[in-house]
Amino acid sequence: MGNINKCPECNCENTYQDVNLWVCPECFHEFDPSLSVKADDDETQDAPVLDSNGNVLNDGDSVSVIKDLKVKGSLSGIKAGTKVKNIHLVDSKDGHNISCKIDGFGAMYLKSEFVKKA
Description:
1 helix; three-stranded antiparallel sheet; single chain; about 10% helix; alpha+beta
């Protein structure tokens, strides 16, 4: 009995079916293989990264931060209106899709929903 439903998290082949879902005994991830295939298809199509106003962002653009942002490990955060030059777009599962360098803070990741194209 060959199992073709590998775990999408850890790629384990020892998955088993529990009612409508498949379960991985190694990482305990539950998944529906029919939805996983559709999600993979959606991920291959690169959706444009949009700023807070709906403008498309590209690598090398300059943006402005639209609200004060707290930074872990820093007493002061990034103030609204801070300009960031030469951004790089990255794929990230946690929503931080802009890689940049900010004067006084160094390299960091930002969410596109908190910036506007300058």
